[in-house]
């Protein structure tokens, strides 16, 4: 009886599903977080009778086959890159991307990572950095005695220095896009890394077609739909329980067969 193994794969798949859903719920308030969804495929089938096989000398053929599947497996997590809501913060270093682009940050090892989290800060040297202290790329350094900064929708950074009413342009922010941004690898700390599946980053300016614009003083909230996640969690729980019931039923059937005299 294959039911024990088949149901076991179902239970393991639903455990993975619950893990993914739990992570979504845990990150419901994480800036720029994108909902993930576990995807599954059925395993190979054992063919007990081939469809189309000849069943009589007259040439009659079997209209359907007899195939028994061997269960399910998790094959990946799909990130749903829909736009999250914009929340006003009044912080002049906060930036939200209204579109599909990503900020670029330089990692300590010389590599680059990408993020939708625009909650930036200033380093001791006046550089604009993310929450982990990684400098954005291209780098922007504020002059000494900067009293206010302005960031346009198209990424132009201007600074008001001392009491001068005329701002000084100090940098141009860029965004990156990907052919397949769902193929990026999550690193934690709200960072993603380019992979072979995502393709190389395509540098663009905010405001370019298909890239998006910047909103100073706003942050992008998570796109997690809590009601949907709770519904999915209940469905995963019920599926897990049914697989557990299948194991119990198979065990009872085998026990009954063993007791035949």
Write the layout of secondary structure elements.
Blueprint: H1 3-26, E1 36-42, E2 45-49, E3 66-69, E4 72-79, E5 86-88, E6 95-98, E7 103-106, E8 112-115, E9 121-122, E10 128-129, E11 136-137, E12 146-151, E13 156-161, E14 168-172, E15 175-177, E16 185-188, E17 191-193, E18 202-204, E19 213-216, E20 218-220, H2 226-258
Antiparallel strand pairs: 1-4, 2-3, 5-20, 6-19, 7-8, 7-11, 9-10, 12-13, 13-14, 15-18, 16-17
Helix pairs in contact: 1-2
Give a short overview.
The mean pLDDT is 89. A three-stranded antiparallel β-sheet has the order 8-7-11, with no helix packed on it. A three-stranded antiparallel β-sheet has the order 12-13-14, with no helix packed on it. Strands 1-4 form a two-stranded antiparallel sheet. The chain has helices spanning 3-26, 226-258; strands at 36-42, 45-49, 66-69, 72-79, 86-88, 95-98, 103-106, 112-115, 121-122, 128-129, 136-137, 146-151, 156-161, 168-172, 175-177, 185-188, 191-193, 202-204, 213-216, 218-220.
Task: Summarize the helix and strand pattern as letters.
Answer: HEEEEEEEEEEEEEEEEEEEEH
Task: Count every beta strand, where a strand is a DSSP E run of 2 or more residues.
Answer: 20
Number of domains: 2
Give the % helix. 10-25%
């Amino acid at each position: 009886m294959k039911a024990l193994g088949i149901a076991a794969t179902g239970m393991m798949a639903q455990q993975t599903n619950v893990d993914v859903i739990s992570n979504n719920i845990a990150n419901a308030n994480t800036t720029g977080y994108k909902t993930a969804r576990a995807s599954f495929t059925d395993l190979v089938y054992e063919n007990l009778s081939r469809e189309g096989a000849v069943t009589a000398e007259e040439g009659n053929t079997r209209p359907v086959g007899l195939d028994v599947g061997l269960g399910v497996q998790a094959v990946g997590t799909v990130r749903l890159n829909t736009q999250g809501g914009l929340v006003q913060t009044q912080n002049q270093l906060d930036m939200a991307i209204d579109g599909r682009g990503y900020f670029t940050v330089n990692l300590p090892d010389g590599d680059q990572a990408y993020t939708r989290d625009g909650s930036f800060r200033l380093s001791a040297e006046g550089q604009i950095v993310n929450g982990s202290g990684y400098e954005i790329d291209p780098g922007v350094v504020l002059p000494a005695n900067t009293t206010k900064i302005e960031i346009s929708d198209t990424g132009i950074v201007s600074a008001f220095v001392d009491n001068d009413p005329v701002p000084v342009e100090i940098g141009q922010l860029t965004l990156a896009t990907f052919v397949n941004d769902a193929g990026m690898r999550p690193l934690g700390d709200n960072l993603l890394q380019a992979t072979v599946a995502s393709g190389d980053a395509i540098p663009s300016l905010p405001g370019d077609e298909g890239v998006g614009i910047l909103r100073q003083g706003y942050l992008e909230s998570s796109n997690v739909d809590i009601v949907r996640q709770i519904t999915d969690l209940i469905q995963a729980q019920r599926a897990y329980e049914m697989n557990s019931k299948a194991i119990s039923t198979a065990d009872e059937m085998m026990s009954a067969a063993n007791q035949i005299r």
